[in-house]
Amino acid sequence: MKVILVNGSSRPDGCTARALKEIRDTLNAEGIETLDFFIGNAPIADCTACLSCRKTGKCVFNDKVNEFASLAAEADGFVFGSPVYYAHPSGRLLSFMDRVFYSAGNLFKFKPAAAVFSARRAGSVASMDIANKYFSIAAMPIVSSTYWNHVFGKEPAEVEADAEGLMTMKNIGLNMAWLLKCIDCAKKAGIEYPVNEKLFTNFTR
Ligand SMILES: Cc1cc2nc3c(=O)[nH]c(=O)nc-3n(C[C@H](O)[C@H](O)[C@H](O)COP(=O)(O)O)c2cc1C
User: Fold this and answer.
1) In 42, 51, 67, 177, which residue has its Cα 20 to 30 A from 6's Cα atom?
2) Which residues is 85 bridged to in the sheet?
3) pTM score > 0.90 for this model?
4) Which of 13, 84, 118 most suits a substitution to test ligand 1, by most atoms within 8 Å of the C-beta?
5) How many angstroms separate the Cα of 41 from the Cα of each of 38, 91, 193?
């Protein structure tokens, strides 16, 4: 079983990375394989609604999004991490998630996910609300913790001192590992995935 940890900061070793490390270490201790995926600090294009992905199954911009989608196909769970910018996830992560969920949303179905945030002071709860919506529209079980999914800090050393924040990250790792093991048991017991109905009406009748 493998979980991909996506770092949506422009800083590979910043506060978000420190939060994700806590989850990674916990998952590894529980016997779950992990893969770190840094989306990079180059600009990430927003979705241009060209709909070419509807024909090809890939985003027309062949960058980190398509690289991630090919890895996501083999993964069992996901953690998306981001700094809080103006009380929302980083714009780069939102552009990344818009494009990957629009072009390859079927890769995520029924796979557990969590989103975690690093903030200097505030805005992480609003950020959670935004990120969790990608998961709920993609039929992904949302992994929760024991408090809001955030750590506080402007630099990683401050996150290091946020004992409750790090505990919250650890509990996400424990809860994610537990859910993955439950899903694995269910598969082995012959429980099939549900076949969801699909209707797309654009509010016209
Ligand atoms: C453009 C910008 C906007 C930010 N907005 C907020 C904010 O709304 N609330 C907050 O607490 N911190 C805000 N911050 C601070 C970062 O969220 C915080 O330093 C975070 O821990 C950085 O994580 P990183 O090291 O992984 O990039 C902002 C930082 C930047 C660069």
Assistant:
1) 51
2) 88
3) yes
4) 84
5) 9, 12, 37
Instruction: Give the mean model confidence (pLDDT) for residues 121-130.
Output: 98
Domain presence at residue 201? no
Tokens read off for 52 = 């070419």
CA distance 49 to 95: 12
Can you give the pLDDT at residue 205? 62
CATH number of residue 183's parent domain = 3.40.50.360
Ligand 1: which residue has its CA nearest to atom 8?
86
Atom of ligand 1 nearest to the CA of 10: 27
What digits encode the pLDDT tens for the residues 20-62?
Answer: 999 999 999 999 999 999 999 999 999 999 999 999 999 999 9
Domain assignment present for residue 130? The answer is yes
Range of the domain at 100: 2-188
Asked whether 122 lines ligand 1 (CB < 6 A), one says yes
d(CA 145, CA 114): 9
Domain for residue 146, yes or no?
yes
CA distance 65 to 45: 10
Torsion of CA 179, 181, 187, 193, to 10 degrees: 10
CA distance 60 to 122: 35
Cβ–ligand 1 distance for 158 under 6 Å, the answer no
Instruction: Name the domain count of the chain.
Output: 1
Whether ligand 1 lies within 6 angstroms of the CB of 8 is answered as no
Residue 131 lies in a domain: yes
